[in-house]
């Protein structure tokens, strides 16, 4: 749930600069300090496909209510390169630009607060290394914000590097703070921030949530080929693999990645692979292998605009049609598209449980917007965590074991190789109940029907879309996956202004819940909002439910929706 | 006591006289000689006539995709190193479609034995050239004869320092079985490339053609510890074709290097959700 009302504290900070200048570091220090002080932060980044140079930015939004999306207005713009000011100054309506002389250029403007980051760093430490910490201090100076939490955070972060580094960082932050407070900005404080320190909150992005969700679900094998924007999941699982008895292997290519994971799953552990659309192209053959051998696998796909290499670091919801239809033949699959980082955690756990229960491939469809989006939550509740492997126990296996025994539910009891007494035979060819090749037509019909019967049980488990905003609205937005934050906030803002609008948002994409149709049928004007150019989800609704949306709002410039962009478009469509 | 009977399974679909029969026989003998019980063995195969071999054995089987024999075999071995994992593929499977996996499996070095049925032809698709076909071999597709240099699996494997590299001949079951046994027993990735006449499509590399040429390197006093000598032997092809163990060295397999596997297979580990608390510390 979004706050359901209008946000009181809403401070937006954008840090712009070249790759390699430490934009992320500044963003991370600021965000985590605010989170520790009891604020809700949402952050996201825009970056280019290069290691150094170019123009990137990191956006942080600070609020006293949960926030799940960006705001287009900027209160403080930190310019680390010359490009930042002309590119973003229009977004700074009533705020300030923090910069040093080297980046001011010809942009003489009252909003510009020039702070010599490097010089101050050298003054207090003898090195320019701490200029980013000076910038952080200067931001807090503009906000007249207490430095206590920041100092504590810096102490913890740099503890391993020794007291001197800690001390210099703190001095650098204080000097940046004082410079702004004393010399440039005396007595002006428009921001009422009331810190309430807490240690229960976390700041987590979509990729990390998927990684932690996988660990929580008991993943023990992850093989992947690194690909933006999915790599964070692989990195997260790798960094805790030893503690969770898991192996992470960087495969030679995506074909190997998915096939290795399938092999590990067949041998008895929970396994996953991570990729983006281009890598998934190579995996489609393995997807079908999972389908016909009924070997569970979880595939995380972080979408980015395509085709081919596309826009490697930007966002799009362009691979829905692809994942629904990938691989030849017909077999059951499940597609889940998390809405937020928290949803990503629980959906990932669900993905593993569904994959093993139904012995099918489950796809977690994310995108760069969610992958890199930083969300603030209370620590996730894992007390209700349930892991059911749906494996046959040793005492239940026998010499007459048949991997593909025909059952009413379509689910065959699953043993794993190595269990004494039973032999497990799996085959990518059409096979009989024992797992051996069988090309007879009768067998083909029986086996195909057995596999497809699993869809009945699976569909029963699919969740309804979330409904946000007022009931019986004149206008309903329909969305899926990572667009939840911007769409829900757009609805909140409009509801506050007494516009009759709500949001119907899907996270369980395929198969669609049995009851989704009944919700949709009762709606008035419906607008399907998607980050793609062809309305792929609208098409799914038409194909699966026979439901035709009234209008589509499509964005495909590589950027996510914002609440403001959605409201502008709705006005342009003259539906509100 | 494990016997050949324990591994017997069903009717085959191979052409009469196919070299695959002897390979199947050699595999069975090796498993019996090594005292492996069927439930301890996992055979992973690709697609093609070679890919059917595990179906004619009683053991755990994962029949995968064309060329993808080694990745699932690797995943399974990591999940449960207690399984004896044997990968079975043809020359198209192992060296063509799966060429990249072949190279990287050797680099990764899981304790898996690859048994490559190398008949220098694509049999299941009715007689096109394979990566190991000789230059000039004419087929319905290669109408002017094969133009490409044959892939040399042994030389490639030795160049990558593969811990066990051998070549057998399907016409000599006893020798082949001994090579397979040695390969399975050797720690790390082991390759047994098998010269296997295709009686239907390969009219060039026939039983007679091989019988006239193959010889056992052991008889010549080849030292498999000598990598340079092994490489030279791997390049020998023509009037005389060497068989036997070309190269072997001690190695630490991939899965043995993984700390988490030192206390037993992944499949036997208990899940501990208490560790999640410390993970969340990273985000506060």
TrEMBL record, chain A:
Domain Pyruvate/ketoisovalerate oxidoreductase catalytic positions: 19-178
One GO process term, biological-process aspect: sulfur compound biosynthetic process
An example Gene Ontology molecular-function term: 2-oxoglutarate synthase activity
Residues of the Pyruvate flavodoxin/ferredoxin oxidoreductase pyrimidine binding domain: 213-447
EC number: 1.2.7.3
Pfam family, one: POR_N
InterPro entries (alphabetical): 2-oxoacid/accept_OxRdtase_asu, Pyruvate:ferred/Flavod_OxRd, Pyrv/ketoisovalerate_OxRed_cat, Pyrv_Fd/Flavodoxin_OxRdtase_N, Pyrv_flavodox_OxRed_cen, THDP-binding, Transketo_C/PFOR_II
Keyword match Chloroplast: no
Name used for this protein in its record: 2-oxoglutarate synthase subunit KorA
From TrEMBL, chain B:
Residue span(s) of domain Pyruvate ferredoxin oxidoreductase beta subunit C-terminal: 198-262
EC number: 1.2.7.3
UniProt GO MF annotations: 2-oxoglutarate synthase activity; iron-sulfur cluster binding; metal ion binding; thiamine pyrophosphate binding
One of the GO biological process terms: cellular respiration
CDD domains linked to this entry: TPP_OGFOR
Residue intervals of the Thiamine pyrophosphate enzyme TPP-binding domain: 52-194
Cofactor: thiamine diphosphate; Mg(2+); [4Fe-4S] cluster
Enzyme class: oxidoreductase
Keywords: Iron, Iron-sulfur, Magnesium, Metal-binding, Oxidoreductase, Pyruvate, Thiamine pyrophosphate
Keyword Magnesium found: yes
Protein's name in the database: Pyruvate ferredoxin/flavodoxin oxidoreductase, beta subunit
């Amino acid at each position: 749930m979004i706050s359901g009302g209008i946000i009181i504290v809403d401070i937006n900070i954008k840090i712009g600069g070249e790759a390699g200048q430490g934009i992320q570091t500044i963003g991370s220090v600021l965000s985590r300090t605010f989170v520790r002080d009891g604020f809700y932060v949402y952050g996201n980044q825009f970056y280019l496909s290069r290691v150094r140079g170019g123009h990137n930015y990191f956006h942080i939004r600070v609020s006293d209510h949960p926030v799940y999306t960006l705001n287009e207005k900027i209160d403080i713009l930190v310019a680390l390169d010359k490009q930042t000011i002309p590119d973003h100054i229009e977004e700074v309506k009533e705020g300030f630009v923090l910069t040093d002389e080297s980046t001011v250029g010809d942009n003489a403007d009252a909003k510009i607060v020039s702070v010599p980051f490097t010089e101050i760093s050298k003054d207090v430490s003898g090195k320019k290394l701490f200029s980013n910490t000076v910038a952080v201090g200067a931001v807090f100076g503009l906000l007249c914000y207490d430095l206590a939490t920041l100092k504590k955070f810096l102490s913890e972060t740099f503890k391993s590097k020794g007291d001197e580094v800690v001390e210099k960082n703190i001095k650098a932050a204080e000097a940046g703070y004082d410079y702004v407070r004393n010399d440039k900005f005396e007595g002006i404080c428009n921001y009422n921030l009331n810190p309430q320190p807490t240690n229960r909150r976390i700041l987590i992005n979509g990729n990390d949530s998927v990684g932690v969700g996988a660990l929580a679900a008991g993943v023990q094998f992850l093989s992947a080929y690194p690909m933006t924007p999915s790599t964070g999941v692989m990195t997260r699982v790798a960094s805790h693999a030893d503690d969770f008895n898991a192996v992470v292997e960087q495969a030679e290519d995506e074909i190997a990645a998915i096939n290795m994971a399938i092999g590990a799953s067949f041998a008895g552990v929970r396994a996953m692979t991570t990729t983006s659309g281009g890598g998934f192209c190579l995996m489609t053959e393995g997807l079908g292998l999972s389908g016909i051998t009924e070997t569970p696998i979880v595939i995380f796909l972080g979408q980015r605009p395509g085709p081919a290499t596309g826009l490697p670091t930007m966002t799009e919801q362009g691979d829905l049609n692809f994942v629904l239809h990938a691989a030849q033949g017909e077999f059951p699959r499940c597609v889940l598209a998390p809405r937020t980082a928290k949803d990503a955690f629980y959906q990932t756990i669900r993905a593993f449980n569904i994959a093993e229960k139904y012995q099918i491939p489950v796809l977690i469809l994310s995108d760069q917007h969610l992958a890199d989006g930083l969300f603030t939550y209370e620590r996730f509740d894992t007390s209700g965590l349930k892991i059911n492997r749906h494996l046959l126990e040793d005492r239940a296996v026998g010499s007459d074991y048949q991997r593909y025994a025909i059952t009413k539910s379509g689910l065959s009891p699953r043993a794993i190789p190595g269990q004494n007494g039973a032999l497990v035979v799996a085959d990518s060819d059409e096979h009989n109940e024992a797992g051996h090749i069988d090309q007879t037509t009768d067998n083909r019909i029986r086996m195909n029907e057995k596999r497809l019967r699993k869809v009945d049980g699976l569909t029963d488990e699919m969740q309804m879309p979330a409904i946000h905003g007022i009931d019986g609205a004149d206008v309903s937005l329909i969305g899926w996956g990572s667009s939840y934050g911007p769409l829900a906030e757009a609805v909140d803002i409009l509801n506050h202004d007494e516009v009759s609008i709500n949001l119907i948002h899907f996270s369980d994409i395929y198969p669609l819940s049995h009851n989704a149709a009944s919700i949709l049928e009762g709606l008035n004007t419906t607008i399907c909002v998607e980050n793609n150019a062809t309305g792929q989800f609208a098409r799914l609704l038409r194909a699966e439910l026979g439901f035709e949306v009234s209008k589509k709002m499509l964005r495909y410039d590589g950027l996510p929706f914002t609440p403001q962009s959605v409201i502008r478009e709705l006005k342009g469509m003259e539906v509100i | 006591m494990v016997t050949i009977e324990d591994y017997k399974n069903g009717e085959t679909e191979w052409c009469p006289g196919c070299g695959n029969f002897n390979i199947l026989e050699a595999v069975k003998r090796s498993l019996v000689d090594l005292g492996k019980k069927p439930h301890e063995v996992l055979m992973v195969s690709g697609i093609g006539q070679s890919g059917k071999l595990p179906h004619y054995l009683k053991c755990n089987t994962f029949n995968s995709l064309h060329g993808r024999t080694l990745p699932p075999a690797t995943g399974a071995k990591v999940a449960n190193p207690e399984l004896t994992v044997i990968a079975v593929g043809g020359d198209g499977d192992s060296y063509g479609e799966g060429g990249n996996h072949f190279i990287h499996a050797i680099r990764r070095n899981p304790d898996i034995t690859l048994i490559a049925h190398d008949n220098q032809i694509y049999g299941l698709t009715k007689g096109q050239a394979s990566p190991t076909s000789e230059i000039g071999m004419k087929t319905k597709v290669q109408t002017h004869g094969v133009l490409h240099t044959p892939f040399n699996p042994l030389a490639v494997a030795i160049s990558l320092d593969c811990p066990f590299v051998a070549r057998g001949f399907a016409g000599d079951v006893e020798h082949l079985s001994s090579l397979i046994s040695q390969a399975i027993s050797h720690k790390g990735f082991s390759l047994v490339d098998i010269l296997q006449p295709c009686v239907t499509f390969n009219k060039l590399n026939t039983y007679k053609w091989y019988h006239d040429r193959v010889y056992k390197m052991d008889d010549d006093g080849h030292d498999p510890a000598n990598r340079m000598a092994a490489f030279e032997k791997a390049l020998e092809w023509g009037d005389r074709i060497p068989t036997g163990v070309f190269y072997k060295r001690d190695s630490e397999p991939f899965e043995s290097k993984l700390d988490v596997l030192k206390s037993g297979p992944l499949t036997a580990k208990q899940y501990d959700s208490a560790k999640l608390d410390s993970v969340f510390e990273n985000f506060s």
